[in-house]
Amino acid sequence: MLFNFVAIALLQGSSLFAFANPLAEVPHRPRGCGSIIDEAKKNVAELDFKAHRRIATAVNGLLAAGPTTLNVHFHVILKDGSVRGGNVTDSAIQEQMNVLNIAFLTTGIQFNLQSVNRLQNSRWFSGAGPTVSAIQDEMKTELRQGGAADLNVYTVGFESGPDQGLLGYATFPSDFESFPEDDGVVLLHSTLPGGSTPDYNLGQTLTHEVGHWVGLYHTFQGGCRGAGDEVSDTPAEASPAEGCPVGRDSCSGGGLDPIHNFMDYSFDSCMNNFTPGQVTRLRDQIATYRNVPGGVIPPLSSLIPELPSIVIPEPQVPSSVLEEPTPVSSAPVEVIPSAPIPEASAPGAVYEAPAGPRPTARSFVDFFRRKI
Ligand SMILES: [Zn+2]
């Protein structure tokens, strides 16, 4: 069902598909790809883009006065009421939004947290990876909100199945027309700022995934040959960077590898930029496929006074399972009525659907909502 999705995986050894060990047992891991867009699919997508490309800064002659703001719907999928079980704190979500907005400052795109929806479903929490489409389809069909320009983020655990150990995956803008229900980013909850995933817990996994969501490829797409990531100012890379290998030059000519680029696989602490060529591409991508009008990309200096501060929260501690969600901020954030959290008398309990025939997606969710 899912066509052009991109996934990042935590890899064990050199195998692209070995996700067996629990995250906590592996102190240093490369960020890798469970599934990337292959060249054939990319070429089809690029032909379509060339044929229909809308130049962002000339769309309808509009010139935006400031950043274009897109709404974000955050869906927190829980296994249980603990942080380890996916119950990320509201402050972590807010810090994640801050990190995302700082990363996107140079693009002229900003993101507004419109809603936070907490829902308990251990099956989705564990298995909503890109490989088994039925589970993610069920989740997204039930939860996705808004249209092509609305970013839906689902935080899950990737604890079982072929996608165990993933950091996240995303859909591309050009997929929206064919598979609107699939659109969005699915993210490992512990990659949020202050989360428990070593080296990938400063919030840049979401930045990377949203980079795909606005139409960017990996900087190492295609290796040293060909059109690569279709952006001229990101030097070609033979393979993903690991850690923060300053001075790496894996392809002859063209310059050093863009290891600090958000679309590489470096550690979160190593990532800090999109290039001007990427900004042009992503603005044209979302003008073409997400109907986001173009505009003047604001100079960074005009935005500096509005820079939100990054405060990395203390490591999350389990909250009371009976705690009401705290409003994320004083901003107009709608906190959708949450799915029930397990009773205090059963800490850590995993609530499953009733025995019997496997319910439909809607009845499965309704089961939890009825327990409010
Ligand atoms: Zn990626």
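^ zinc ion complex. The chain has a mean pLDDT of 75. The pocket of zinc ion is lined by residues 6, 8, 208, 212, 218 (CB under 6 Å).
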